[in-house]
Specification:
- By secondary structure, this protein is α/β, with parallel strands linked by helices.
- The chain has a single domain (2-220), classed as Rossmann fold.
- It contains 7 helices and 11 strands.
- The strands form 2 sheets. Strands 1, 2, 5, 6, 7, 8, 9, 10 and 11 form a 9-stranded mixed sheet that branches. A two-stranded antiparallel ribbon has the order 3-4.
- Strand 7 and strand 8 form a beta hairpin.
- Helix 1 (10-24) packs parallel to helix 7.
- The chain is globular.
């Protein structure tokens, strides 16, 4: 499997060690993990993220995983997803785990996947104590589920910017706070969706809503 994990923040950094461990000990599945992020780990990230050293998040985490899970092929792309590189990053047959904190990137990735013949896209995001996971499957040129923009005007018409856009630093500085526990819940839900697709060929829902304080999870089929 070609798995592209886009975004190595709170959700991505929580998700990827368990994903690598799963493939390390699988007898029937082999995967190559490509970690994609143009951001660097900084002291302010410590409340929700763990990296062995400072530096680009994708590069540092790929080094850690390669040492811990030698049976899994891991590589890093130290760059943000942008219109001029997404075609090289996300290709036919890929499984994409999208763990970014901006709607503009979600729209970009979703629209690109809509133009592919076959692709699996699992996107997760959260506010402080609630979040959601969306599953978009495209098979043989046909949508098997809805793209990320469906019934989500905040993704279809984002008011934020891509990380590569001028002025994005200002938006990041004013971003809403994140909670480690919610990151973990969304990461686990994304892995659950991936496991269902591996085992059954599809997820039992198109979107999953979760709320941490109440413990509620609501799977929805569009």
């Amino acid at each position: 499997m070609e798995i592209k994990l886009i975004g190595m923040g709170g959700i991505g950094a929580a998700l990827v060690p368990f994903l690598a461990r799963y493939f390390q000990h699988s007898r029937s599945l082999k995967a190559r993990l490509t970690l994609v992020d143009g951001d660097a780990f900084e002291p302010g990230n410590r409340a929700r993220q763990e990296f062995a050293r400072f530096g680009n998040k994708a590069v540092v985490k790929a080094e850690e995983l390669a040492r811990a899970f030698p049976a899994v092929s891991v590589r890093a792309l130290a760059q943000f997803v942008a219109p001029d590189n997404i075609a090289a990053m996300v290709r036919e047959g890929d499984t994409v785990l999208l763990a970014v904190d901006n709607y503009a990137t979600r729209r970009l990735v979703s629209k690109h996947c809509e133009g592919l013949d076959s692709v699996t896209l699992i996107s997760g995001g959260n506010e402080l104590t609630d979040g959601n996971v969306q599953v978009y499957l495209r098979r043989n040129g046909v949508d098997a589920s809805r793209p990320l923009t469906y019934l989500h005007p905040e993704i279809e018409h984002p008011t934020d910017l891509l990380p590569t856009d001028e002025g994005c630093e200002r938006l990041i500085a004013t971003a809403a706070p994140q909670l480690l526990f919610t990151n973990l819940a969304v990461a686990a839900a994304m892995l659950g969706a991936l496991y269902a697709i591996i085992e059954q060929g599809e997820a039992p829902y198109d979107e999953l809503y979760l709320d941490l304080p109440s413990g509620r999870q609501l799977p929805v089929r569009r």
